[in-house]
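Final report, closing paragraph on structural work. Over the funding period we assembled a curated collection of sequence-structure pairs, and we close with a single example.
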Amino acid sequence: MDNVEQANPRVRLRVVQALVVACFGLFAWIILLGLTLPKRYDAAHWNLAWVGFDVALLVGLAATAWAAWRRRAIIVIFATITATLMCADAWFDITTARSTDLGVSVAQAVLVELPFAYFLFHVVGRVIRFSRGTIWSDQLGTRPRSLWTVEFRHPSEQDRVSASGQLGNAAADESVD
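Its predicted structure, as stored:
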């Protein structure tokens, strides 16, 4: 049995507006930080910050491994988060290193963290490309060339959403370049 949802095109507009406002706010915050932060700062909980970050990285790696082992599509989210954490780890390792530790930090970033992040992003790309060919081609009729060209309606704009989560007729009528 199909669930009928109330279409509200303003919801998507509000999401876009919120994202644009967040961009402007973050831009202003970056400028403020650049002008006011001290060049040196001693952190009170330095060890907690780094250990906590590495625990988050471990959780991300474990969740990604679990999703790969169980063949779950959620690997896209887990691997994206973990790869992003790896890039952030490399950035902060290098930018917070003392001059005596800089070589080790750069080597670790170049030889371990960034290549592994690239590997995880590659996994994400492969899963998305596979999904694009199996799921979206069934709904849209043709396989799109790139995810940059795939267009979909915001859930609030769909005419109907079935109980199984299939897009309604309005989404199936859209063509992809």
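Residues 160-177 have pLDDT under 50 and may be disordered. The longest helix spans residues 102-140. We thank the funder for supporting this effort.
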